[in-house]
RNA sequence: GGUACCAUGGCCGAGUGGCUAGGCAACGGUCUGCAAAACCGUGUACAGCGGUUCGACUCCGCUUGGUACCUCCA
């Protein structure tokens, strides 16, 4: 068991040594998507970030239960359209579909996109709609503890009475007094004692489709409740890691803490991990800003902001080249750079096959491996890990050029290090197109032979013709010292 | 207004109290019939102003600029 992992805890604003509550078991809960639209770049970041963390914790030998929920009961939309309309219900009316039909449709697409990004499946992927009973039970606990009140068939969390005993705002650094003086006046909130009280249960208005019976009304659970209920159900009242995007810090995660404290008398988890957001041209992407790019559009290149398509692995590499706590700005140039960098890394990996070992090593492989581990141990620093791997690529190229030498043992270590960090931990996949069936291989062999003979006769018109024509169908000829190679591009 | 965070070379993006991040681009070179590809080499940048220090890009303060959250959003 590795002892050196340090991670940044949003709760303490410090890097802390990771010490699981019940090693070797680790419980991790991450806020998943609301399935009423296609996944976009913003969904890719937490998915890839926590995939990296999941992979690394397993690599260290922990037995991780990773929960990532699916929100399918809808959250409230309060602006413009009045209070309390359910997002999924709204879309359902527009498209004349059952709410669950929409949720299922987008869940399926989300999974497909995550698979393309080579994001591992979580251990459990609970749906909010499947845990209404647990959520109702949690509300009852909160009411019994004196921190919830019923009003007009809805139930609200009493932030003021809670804050007399606990610090509401300790995760996001807020003070209740500030909340009091700064909360905007929203219409139709007369049911609440205080404007910053949040709903635990909302009574459904006429026409509202997604609703369930409860002791208080036919309605639906409030927006912070599902995570509290489902994390407790599968990980217990106190677990190791809770993650999500920084935009969820307040009020979502803050309220989760309050709910758990109110119901169970303790914080839900030990470490809070938040990934930063992706911006587009320096601005955040959001559904309401209409500047988001879906993964589908990224992969196909069909979006006005995109100069070309970008493969799933390019997106994954792009995300991993920045530290998860830093903002990452999207641009075509940045993605193109990531695309080329990824290719360089993969070419380096493939070049390992060309190395012939010697009796002695002039390169240092062990320190390289240690640097990789140190990078990951330092709050999952994937950019430093990648930089170290590029140092490895330079080492590999020098070995291929026979400017350096390496023993069989070191070569094995180098190969296993690359295997572990590139594929097992960073989760990258070599996307180079298949060169095709054996017959095509033989055909290309023949063509290359013809071109070779033409060149030997100095018949460059023929050799260039072959090269140009192949290039037209995206087959690239590369002349190397050991003869010509070919590869399918794009 | 409150809260949180950030300002690094042409671009993306790490990191550190004194010693090379890395990738892309650019430039030079090797290779090549010419190319392409590939590989090698080259960049003293850290918003501004003060302070602490033998020494700060790295710590502290201020200023300026930016982003996010406070309202659905990863």
Summarize the helices and strands and which ones pair or pack.
Blueprint: E1 6-9, E2 14-17, E3 25-30, H1 41-59, E4 63-68, E5 76-77, E6 85-86, H2 87-95, H3 99-116, H4 132-144, E7 148-151, E8 154-157, H5 159-165, H6 176-182, E9 199-203, E10 219-221, H7 225-235, E11 239-245, H8 249-264, E12 269-275, E13 278-280, E14 283-284, H9 295-300, H10 312-320, E15 328-330, H11 332-351, H12 365-377, H13 382-400, H14 408-425, H15 438-456, H16 460-472, E16 475-480, E17 483-488
Parallel strand pairs: 3-4, 3-11, 11-12, 13-15
Antiparallel strand pairs: 1-2, 5-6, 7-8, 8-9, 9-10, 13-14, 16-17
The structure holds one RNA strand of 74 nucleotides.
Question: What does it look like?
Answer:
There is one protein chain. The protein is α/β, with parallel strands linked by helices. The chain has three domains: 270 residues, HUPs (Rossmann fold, 3-Layer(aba) Sandwich); 147 residues, Anticodon-binding domain of a subclass of class I aminoacyl-tRNA synthetases (Four Helix Bundle (Hemerythrin (Met), subunit A)); 51 residues, no CATH class. The chain has 16 helices and 17 strands. The strands form six sheets. Strands 4-3-11-12 form a four-stranded parallel β-sheet, with helices on both faces. Strands 7-8-9-10 form a four-stranded antiparallel β-sheet, with helices on one face. Strands 14-13-15 form a three-stranded mixed β-sheet. The longest helix has 20 residues. About 3% of the residues have low confidence. It binds one RNA strand of 74 nucleotides through helix 1, strand 5, helix 6, helix 8 and strand 14.
